[in-house]
Amino acid sequence: MPGSTKCTACVLVIVVAIVILVVVLLLGLSPSSPTYTIVGFSIPVSSNDRNATFTFFLNVKNRNKFSNVNHDEIKLAFDYNEDILANITLPSFREKFSGTHHFAEEVEANARVWKALVNAIATNKTAEVKVDLVTRGSWAVHHAHMSKSWKHLQGRVPIGSDGKIPRKKKIKLKRVPKKQISSKK
User: Fold this and answer.
1) CA 41/CA 168 separation, integer angstroms
2) How many other C-beta atoms can be found within 10 angstroms of the C-beta atom of residue 115?
């Protein structure tokens, strides 16, 4: 009997070590949210171009080294002076681990708001557009899907006199504080 007690203790130590290893691995592999960055924005400001469209470039980067991200539709709203400049919905997609998905979209704008924006750029040599992004995504680690989570992000895009973001600046969209979300309801 003394040998079986040693064997039981040895098996118990091995089981505890495996449980600790699994917990450490799961905590180490817990996914982080992707980053959403406006890397380009262009509004035609020449006097002969009266087409109410603009172009934006969005990068979605998956920072996870071991998990893929399944993105639902990405809804973007562009506002100028609290007025809606444009809305666009980007299609759902799957992003591999450590990958970046690039979007380049031309958007038709609300003509009245677009005209006010172009006039502000012409007058002040600068303007600012607020970008709201809402999406949902789930993470897949070795084909096991984890829960979906909502993302509500915002950023302010400065626009220079040429109708573009000054100095090749990149605008990383940041999480909207919960207080701000609840006050809008």
Assistant:
1) 10
2) 13
CA distance 173 to 59: 10
Q: Does residue 141 surpass a pLDDT of 70?
A: no
Pick the CATH number of 35-184 from 3.10.350, 2.60.40, 1.10.3470, 3.30.70: 2.60.40
CA 72/CA 69 separation, integer angstroms: 10
Cα first-last separation, the chain: 70
Q: Which residues fall within 8 angstroms of residue 61, CB to CB, at 6 or more apart?
A: 34, 35, 37, 99, 100, 101
- pTM, entire model: 0.77
> What is the rounded average pLDDT for all residues in the chain?
83
Q: How is the chain split into domains, by residue range? A: 35-184
| Tokens at 56, concatenated | 């934006």
Neighbours of 155 (CB within 10 A): 17
CA distance 103 to 159: 19
β 68-71/35-42 pair status? unpaired
